[in-house]
Amino acid sequence: MEGLHVSLAGEGILEIAGFTITNSLLTTWIVMAVLLILAWAGTRNITLVPSGLQNLWEMILEFLLGLCSSTAPTYARTIFPLFATLFIFIVTANWMALLPGVNSITVQPPDAHAALSLGDLVPTAHAAAPAAAPAAAAEGHASPIPLFRAANADMNTTLAMAVIAFIMIHASGIRIHGVLGYAKEIATPIFLTPVKVVIECFVPVSLSFRLFGNVFGGEMLLTVMGFPVVAVLFMLLELLFGLIQAVIFSMLTLVFTALAVTVPEGHGVSDHEENHGAEGAVAH
């Protein structure tokens, strides 16, 4: 346990023109590339009778659209793109973090070597060996760090998604109610306004910390597992937890957005006006 490598933030593995690429950022790019390839493969030959990857994508998207329609029926197609993107990205990133090589291949940080080479790749067991630490320190080399790390085990990733969700929630409310109308919704009743403001400000914190904490905790748990059979059981649980965390993050975003765009009864907006506004939002 003395050689266990723990870091709350993504660690730089390469510097390009002064820009530091962290291990979590590299994993995020890989997740994005995988999703783009799968999306291209599933839509390059679209047919009326779907099969294969196209059928799988349609099943997933129809299920997510159904959730949007049941939660915010009037504005479902407006909220759907962000909701579906968050869910698909988070669950893919969480599951890809369980692949062999993530957290098990290490490299020397950029301040220890001028450039990254294949010779710098070492197994985690060797990098974490307590006996290797004094030798590395004597040579002036920093401790090796993981080449790939779970994307959502970096607070920067989860916080960025939470901020995007936060902006979408309130931008949607302002778009439907107008600036003054949305401010009136928040200020009703007036004595609860400070409480509502504090709650809204904590939404990105709540979303980001919940996802980060669960993924980071699972990452540390799998790292310290020394018995293969037990590790496999926990990995199966992590598959379930990764799905649950994606559902929680995306569903909270969906619910908060639905609440922001909902027009309470008796606020002077007719059904015709509401439906007309919804059609305009969908068309846009």
Q: Name the helix and strand elements from N-terminus to C-terminus, one letter apiece.
A: EEHHHEEHHEHHHHHH
From the alpha carbons, calculate the radius of gyration and give it in angstroms: 23 Å
- Cα distance, first to last residue? 56 Å
Please tell me the overall pLDDT.
79
The count of DSSP E runs of length 2 or more, i.e. the number of strands, is 5
Low-confidence stretches: 112-140, 268-284
The major pleated sheet works out as:
3 strands, antiparallel
Number of helices in the DSSP assignment:
11
Helix content: 55-70%
The number of domains: 1
Q: Beta fraction of the residues?
A: 5-15%
Spatial sequence of strands, sheet with the most strands: 4-3-5
Global outline: globular
What would you call the structural class? Answer: mainly alpha
Descriptive overview:
It is built from 11 helices and 5 strands; from the N terminus they run ββαααββααβαααααα. With 284 residues, it is mainly alpha-helical. It has one domain (12-103, 148-283). A hairpin with a 2-residue loop joins β1 and β2. The longest helix is centred in the C-terminal third of the chain and has 34 residues, at 228-261.
Short description:
The chain contains 11 helices and 5 strands. It has helices spanning 23-43, 52-71, 76-96, 124-127, 132-139, 155-177, 179-186, 193-201, 203-224, 228-261, 271-283; strands spanning 12-16, 19-22, 105-107, 122-123, 145-146.
